């Protein structure tokens, strides 16, 4: 099978490599020439462990090619995956501009039967729109089918998730499409759920909203734990031993971020509102998430009697470890607040890089110790394993004041206190 993947971002590039690993020939198409040039040379334009090695291997074996010529690429393939971005409009609704553009390009270039499968996260009913957009430019009335195949991979473990998914969800209308997609995924060992496109679209949003709910629940509980002098880490462990609850997504912290949860929840809430449905739980998930980031900052502000002229070391900029993605990262909300309150911020992240041209009050450091030198406090925002292996006893000596605010409950509170630090975590005093 020869597959075309449109959009070579995090999802598209991972999908391309995964399909090549499954034994298919794959072409990646993007309008961004810089990305295409880098990918053609075997270089990833984002950080994702393990992906680049396989990309290079499959480029060499000619299983993968890249192009920016959409018309040629669409004409040369009859199985087309769409993996373009679906960001948020100001009102929270999903911005389908890229999807519409791609659909119209496909319709325009149609030269025979095509199966078009959407992997982008989209509101219920979008696949019907995709079909209509294709029709609107499909002047020669070529036959085509559409299907929905939401993506569940996580940045930081994208390749493993794509090669060993928990489940594959396919939303399709006709038996022949279902058969084609089953064949495409024949080497996968996970359950394949076949359903309607609308159900497939909602499964994606409902899954992300549920995971975010677990996080916000634990975060809100962590505030009560602080009041009661109970460790939220121990509570989470005890809860997670119940298989109906499970251990994952029970870690309290400064809240979730990234390119998916915040925008997908906003889009789900927008859909609910449009249909007079009150998803009150999900609304609260969002507001707890916003206030949780400030919850840690308030602890630090109180301890330091304000941030003005304080030197704050920020450890971690990415929204989670093992990625360079800073979209909607809680660290950035903290950084913004600190700068507004006239702190001087020295930040570190092993892979994420920020450009904040207009601000002189901050610096990004190459090593954690550079960020910590002369700091009045450190705020740990991303649980990179590197931060656990820091020589904290030496750090105490190079810091101006030994204050640690651990936004991920990553460090050992007792050990930090025995080293002479003032340590505060979240629900983990
Ligand atoms: N990033 C994740 O972890 C993740 C996980 C699951 C689902 N998703 C969903 O998958 C979709 C893609 O996410 P992403 O993180 O890969 O986005 P991304 O922004 O990293 O990549 C999107 C790519 O599409 C390209 N593009 C836009 N218009 C195009 C066009 N007309 N022709 C060709 N290419 C075009 C862009 O240049 C960009 O490279 C989104 O809907 C997202 O919600 C993302």
Mean pLDDT: 97
Going across the major beta sheet, what is the strand order? 3-2-1-4-5-6
Give the % helix: 40-55%
Low-pLDDT stretches are none
The global form is globular
Provide an overview of this structure.
The chain has 429 residues and is of the alpha/beta class. It has two domains: 163 residues, Rossmann fold; 214 residues, NAD(P)-binding Rossmann-like Domain (Rossmann fold). It contains 16 helices and 14 strands. It has a six-stranded parallel beta sheet with strand order 3-2-1-4-5-6, with helices on both faces. The chain has a six-stranded parallel beta sheet with strand order 11-10-9-12-13-14. Strand 1, helix 1 and strand 2 form a beta-alpha-beta unit. Helix 5 crosses helix 6, helix 9 crosses helix 11 and helix 9 packs parallel to helix 12. The relative contact order is 0.09. It binds nicotinamide-adenine-dinucleotide. The site of nicotinamide-adenine-dinucleotide has 26 residues, from helix 1 and helix 5.
